[in-house]
Amino acid sequence: MSGFPFLKYHGTELFVESVSLDKISQEFGSPCYVYSRAALTNAYREMDAAFSERNHLICYAVKANSSLAILDLFTRLGSGFDIVSEGELRRVLKVGGDPQKIVFSGVGKSSDEMRAALLANILCFNVESEAELILLNQVAKEMDKIAPVSMRVNPDVDAKTHPYISTGLKENKFGVPFNEAEKLYFSGENLTNIRMTGLDFHIGSQLTELAPFSEACEKVLVLLDRLEDKNLKIEHLDFGGGLGIRYSEENPPSIQNYIAALCEDLGDRAQRILVEPGRSLVGNAGLLLTRVEYLKHTSHRDFAIVDAAMNDLIRPALYDAYHEILPITMNGRDTKNYQIVGPVCETGDFLGHNRSLALSQGDLLAVMSAGAYGMSMSSNYNSRPRVAEVMVDGDSIHLIRERESIEQLFSNERVLP
Length: 417
Ligand code: LLP
Description:
Layout: E1 7-10, E2 13-16, E3 19-20, H1 21-28, E4 32-36, H2 37-50, E5 56-61, H3 68-77, E6 80-83, H4 86-94, E7 102-104, H5 111-120, E8 124-127, H6 130-142, E9 147-154, E10 176-177, H7 181-187, E11 194-200, H8 211-229, E12 236-238, H9 255-266, E13 272-275, H10 279-282, E14 286-297, E15 302-306, H11 315-319, E16 325-327, E17 336-341, E18 350-357, E19 364-367, E20 388-393, E21 396-401, H12 406-409
Parallel strand pairs: 4-20, 5-6, 5-13, 6-7, 7-8, 8-9, 9-10, 9-11, 11-12, 12-13, 15-17
Antiparallel strand pairs: 1-2, 2-3, 4-14, 14-15, 14-19, 16-19, 17-18, 20-21
Ligand LLP binds next to helix 10 and helix 11.
């Protein structure tokens, strides 16, 4: 079983904390995302504790899973947030998140988004280009505000991850080119409504080694020291997110070792440390519950057609990502080599290839490690309503998102008069 804590077979039945997944499907149907409150809490606490005495702020990357109940839980634990849109800002504010713990990332912030974030009085904008810096200054001036800025630099480091989620190479669209960053920091001094407060980088996602983090960190610290030598006071250093999780055979560093390595790289520098973890806090705290609709045996292949599809969990289709798939009830029958596919009309609509499972029509399956970039990347493709989400807490089950209705799908559409 992959790195999913609080998931266990009791006899032949799979449980999340003290609740059987079968019971969840009876109450809430399928497909359905299921999260463990204990797993979310523990991951956050493990990271928080790893900083020990360091002045730090964990800014959970909202994009990984932006459901209100998850944001609320992290708010209660004291977390800050890394947002990338006004929508994410509004979600965080909705659950009472502290604006002074919000950082705003992203290469394409609009002036409206800047206004909303300035109005909310967020901790800082992670700026990614000179053009963005100039616009932010202008917007802040119009509002008679000072925008706190951290420059996201691109350290040109190979994160050794899937090319779609690698962001720290010079050919990627992200960050200010490393050798232009210093100049930009000082141009910021002439922009009256900008205050340079931080320095940050984010080199990619699902990193399973420490070396790329350290390589990036080393480069960025050289820049930090140069800025400070020139009397620019940098209050915080933001290391971004990116720590990988175990989907199958990966062996990523533990949260504790990852944070310890960052702290060590930083040495005795006094800056506050920020991190923007997404996947490492939520990925293995959630699964997607799905039911086998049909079995289809052809001369070439055995297909299990399930009720979840690429619109519910796009990672396999988009990145060829592997998610472990477990039976909810073990039945001891002979296994077959199944292609686990959804009902969407695309050959790319699969959740897993070549899975050895003993299946019957109507069986329930758990698609593991689906807490990050699952629900938040889901869509209505094929006019499929978004699925329900539940949070297990000990022996209680809380419905945190109702299954979308068909009516909701087209409630804001109009036909021509
Ligand atoms: N900070 C920034 C600026 C980011 O762009 C990201 C993720 C994070 C933090 C959080 O990274 P994490 O700790 O979750 O690795 N949809 C893809 C992942 C895209 C990641 C985008 N940026 C997937 O399903 O694998």
